[in-house]
Amino acid sequence: MQTIPFSTEGHEVKESSAKKNIVRSPLFYVGDKYKLMDQLKSLFPENIKTYYDVFCGGGSASINVEAEKIIMNDVNPKVIELHEYLQGNSEDIEAFIEKMYEIIINYGLSLSEKGIDLEIESLKQVYVKTYFSKYNKEPYLKLREDYNNDQSNTELLYLLLIYGFNHMIRFNGKGKFNLPVGNVDWNKNVTNALKNYASWYNQNNVELSPSLDFEDFIKSSPLEKGDFLYFDPPYLITFSDYNKLWGEKEEKRLYNLLDSLSEQGIHWGLSNMLFHKGKQNEILLNWAKSYHEYQIESNYISRFDNTIKKDSKEIYVTNYKKTNKEE
Ligand SMILES: C[S@@+](CC[C@H](N)C(=O)[O-])C[C@H]1O[C@@H](n2cnc3c(N)ncnc32)[C@H](O)[C@@H]1O
User: Fold this and answer.
1) How confident is the model over 177-218, as pLDDT tens digits?
2) Which residue, by CA, sits nearest to atom 27 of ligand 1?
3) Number of compact structural domains in the chain
């Protein structure tokens, strides 16, 4: 196995990412690949014709890749709806951001990009770690109610994502958005991420899939040599909301598909977790032996307790060898 020397300190990874012009997705997606993108990108093939982001989530991989064409897919239609919405606003992102400020102010949500008022300052003294959530709780619940009354309003969904718990997207069984308020708000990182996303979209040839299961997506794609498929599925042995959709059956279905793509000579790369909190992904361990495996340095942060797990091993598996000229 090849190991890439890389800092495990979160801030150093960030600085390194910034140096290499790695940008953050404005979806601030749980489990996004932002901090790992410079490692992954160095392992991606050169001269990609069409890049397929099969499990795109927030799109961190897509917005940092170089390819003639980029196609994004995710089984969650709300994720695709948000990308479509942001892409539709990319031509005049400044106007979009101004419109969002207006909505934020009308709801009475905090907008720390523009400064912090006295009420927030005094909440900060008492609720050191939760002052934004204390301040935003009422307006956030109103925003959530309005969105649930008219879910065609994607701008409200985007704001729920910005102000909601851990920037997650979660709906209950009745189809209602049900996340509580988070201790987050609209700061300059949101504005920067939106501007970066817009300039990426304006400069690239980007397409969205109609939100398909990975297998249907691949089977309906006209794949050619020179294309590259990146797979970042839910990890079988970790926890996230989207892991509810994932089990051993999906894991095996994915590996069968990757084997058949290899037989067709189509290059792919897969991110996954081999060990985590004493658990081992046996299916992955056995299957990956037939391919090239690279260790990726990461700080895996649990959304449940925000602690850094040192007992994890993240890997990147490919069916091509990264040399100056791919095999
Ligand atoms: C680890 S996340 C991807 C994160 C992404 N690479 C990023 O940087 O933001 C996995 C994604 O797989 C999606 N997903 C789950 N099951 C799927 C399936 N059967 N087909 C396609 N996408 C699926 C989830 O909705 C989730 O967005």
Assistant:
1) 999 999 999 999 999 999 999 999 999 999 999 999 999 999
2) 57
3) 2
